[in-house]
Amino acid sequence: MHGTFVWNELATDDVEAAKAFYAETLGWSFEPFAIPDGDYFVARVGETFAGGVTGLACGALPEAREPYWFSFISVADVDAAVARALALGGSIVRAAVDVPNVGRVAIVRDPQGAPIGWMTPVG
Known about the structure:
By secondary structure, the chain is an alpha+beta fold. The chain contains 2 helices and 8 strands; from the N terminus they run βαββββαβββ. The mean pLDDT is 95.
């Protein structure tokens, strides 16, 4: 649904330690998800998606030097949303790209500098 949070992911410098922590504390299981630039793991609670875990180098914020959680909001048309954000003083962190079996995603900063992911999910 347009305007709602749809995905959260952790970017960390120790993916295996993060997976162990969240498996032990929240009962998450993990399965690999292929990305071109590194390792990515989808977290699940049973059959329900819980989020993702990746290395800092593959995270949403290329300048980050410490682990962080990052959120994505669903938008009806990511390209139109990015164009509107730019017109209103936002900026692009990562241009829109298609992620197979996920959707079209972009990362923007609002006019105050806060980063957020926008996604037009598949299906």
